[in-house]
Amino acid sequence: MADQPLRVDLTNCDREPIHIVGSIQPIGFLIAVSADWIIARVSENVGKFLGRSSAELIGQPLAAFIPSRAVHDLRNRVIILRGPDAVERLFGCHLVEGAPPFDIAIHLSGGQIVIEAEPGSAENGDATGIVRSMVGRLDQTTELGGFYREGARQVRALLGYDRVMVYKFAADGSGEVVAEACKAGIGSFFGLHYPASDIPQQARQLYRRNILRIIGDVNADAVRIVPELDEEGRPLDLSLSVLRSVSPIHIEYLKNMGVRASLSISIIVEDQLWGLFACHNYAPRCPTFERRSVSELFAQMFSMRLESRERRAIVEYERRARDISDQLLGAVASDETLLNDPDWLGDILTNAIPADGVGVWINGNYAFSGTTPPTDGFRRVIRALNGTAAGKVYATDHIAALVPGGEEFASLAAGMLAIPISRSPRDYIVLFRSELTRSVRWAGDPHKPIEYGPNGPRLTPRESFQEWKELVEGRSAPFTSSELRVAETLRATLIEVVLRLADEAAAERHQANARQELLIAELNHRVRNILGVIRGLIRQSQPEEEAVKEFVKLVDGRIHALARAHNQITDDHWGPAPLQALIDAEAAAFAAERQNSIVSSGDPVLLNPQAYSTMALVLHELVTNSAKYGSLSDGGRVLIEWHRNNVGDLMLDWQEAGGPPVTPPSRRGFGTTIIDRSVPYDLGGTASIEYAEGGVRANFRIPARHVSEPRSFAGPAIKLPGPTQLHKPAPPPDLLRGRTVLIVEDSLIIALDAEDIVSRLGAANVTTVSTIEAALDSLDGGTPSVAILDINLGDQTSFPIADRLLDRNVPFLFATGYGEQAKLPMEHRARPVVQKPYTLENLARSLGDLLGLR
């Protein structure tokens, strides 16, 4: 079935075209000339045809022996040679005066011009008409099997061989006789398979370069080329020679088949060796060069028609697959749950790529439809797929070659095509094909071991070509290249669907988060306003009795402690807040005038909202009691230290020193109850308080689930704070002395509270309004020194008032209960914002910064 070179440099066969050297067949002769038409080499039988010995020709000008007209025609043919593998032909050329003409082939080899000549046939038939008629018969066939058979019939009719086969290569290199035309009584090779080793890779390379090869008589003696090597020690490359001899191994191969003559014509589809026209004769046969050239032209037309048919079939198949892909995209776009429905996926995907079952693996979840491996086997398949090339379709007709133990479920799933639907190896849709147990008819045992014969290592040429059947198990029908291209299209579609769903889910999450943040902001605003109203009511309702005034002050402090804690945790969307900020906020009001009175020490930690509110009340009571009875009442100090133990719990210690002698309380009040029971009851921790004479000592354990570490980011190292000393200066009582203040606030109680605070800061005149219209009217009547604007006024905002104040260069600040969710227009983006509820400290600090008085 194949030609193999006489001498092969096996060390280079994978890197460069094989060189055939040594001899040609005796049906013609060869002359190699240099560029200046000096004869360099000839075949030994040249005297038989030209009447001149090889010694007479070598080294002489070609024109000294060939008529000038023939030299002229040969030069013209050389001029039109294009490409490294080009061969030109010249029919009916008179090389010897008065002798019959020759048919000539010309090509270039190693810088020399190789001229091969055979006695002319003098047929001079209408080659184009013959080929046109042959191709016309091909075009009348409707299916590929008939197309192959008609091709074999036409070649046999043209060349007259006993048997003409269409031999097709498989992906693994083996071959199959897919069509045959032969004379009666010689048996049939149709359907037989031949192992890949029958046609080595070296020979396949030559088949692509030199389309037609002929052996006129397997018993003929080859004719040597002289000299065998040139002056540089190189043989003549006969890769493109039409007369070249073939390997003795191949001659022996043909003899064992009983074949006396053969001819093969390459079928090239998409620049790849698709197969061969293989012609056998059981007596010597050598069709004329002209007929061989016509058959070569027909084979080229056959290849073009075959490529066109296969391409049309592929285009039609892929068009239907694209329709299915569009259907899939549209269906999932309207119902994303279909992506998790293996039955639906199986129906739609197997309409594009035939399969027996579908397995879906998404985020570790799996589902099946049809015939698939068992669950454990499917998991092993997914693990194996994660080790293949990421982001590419993977197909095999033999799962057991990829998955250890895959033969256990080969009867259910022997082959698979995996379509990844995520960018990294993780999620797949896998199409499974069941085992296809089939009998393959081989022309002899394909597993016969290599033996050594007189011509070197080879499959000892078949001494018998009796049909040998092999039962193929554990494999499925292979996936075709078209199916793989369709799978890539489906992969792109599925990834587009997944990404679109991910984008939609992200957009929905973003909208949900936005709605949630808006709701939280509105709730926080209402809570802050309620706390502000309660504090305002308490302060505005103070009676004359000192005892009741003290009680009101105590309740107001506790409410304010909760308000401050609420501000801290809602500033970060109801997230964890720093313990240090809580200590600063709770202690500042009591230790504002005494530097170094409270010292805190510990690594930065965050408390979750529940723990933060609880500890706000606990620390408030501790600071309040210390300011009344303990070290903060008489020039002493408080040391607050914390650390995390080996299980992550927060251990916080409160130690007073330097104050008056401590005696245990005679009764247990509400404040003591808060200190002693809040952490165990609300947080599941522990608390203890000791009334030592030298100072109160309290210890708390807050469970680890309420504690977290601040996030760290890449960048310059951040120095953790050491002991913190609280010494914020008290607001000056004359901060607003002589100034007029405009307060815009829609809650009367909160407005009165704010009015009292700015009056305590020395304001000469305070105007309080609740609406935009009233504020603008007030501005029409006069310009204040400074203004405080609540951002939200019912269903309106105070931004129009801010615009008017900006035009008049009046300093002002905003107030809000929305925390950081308050959105300011661009022109007011840098304006200070005070968080509600109002306190003397936060208003004094913000107004001082605004007026440049701090």
What does this structure look like?
- 36% of the residues lie in helices and 23% in strands.
- The protein has four domains: 23-312, GAF domain (Beta-Lactamase); 319-436 and 474-505, Beta-Lactamase, CATH 3.30.450.270; 545-725, 2-Layer Sandwich (Heat Shock Protein 90), CATH 3.30.565.10; 740-851, Response regulator (Rossmann fold).
- Helix 12 packs antiparallel against helix 14.
- The model is unreliable at 1-21, 438-450, 455-471 and 712-728 (pLDDT under 50).
- It is elongated, with a radius of gyration of 49 Å.
- The strands form nine sheets. The chain has a seven-stranded antiparallel sheet with strand order 1-11-3-2-6-5-4, with helices on one face. The protein has a six-stranded antiparallel sheet with strand order 9-8-7-13-12-10.
- It is α+β, with helices and mostly antiparallel strands and 854 residues long.
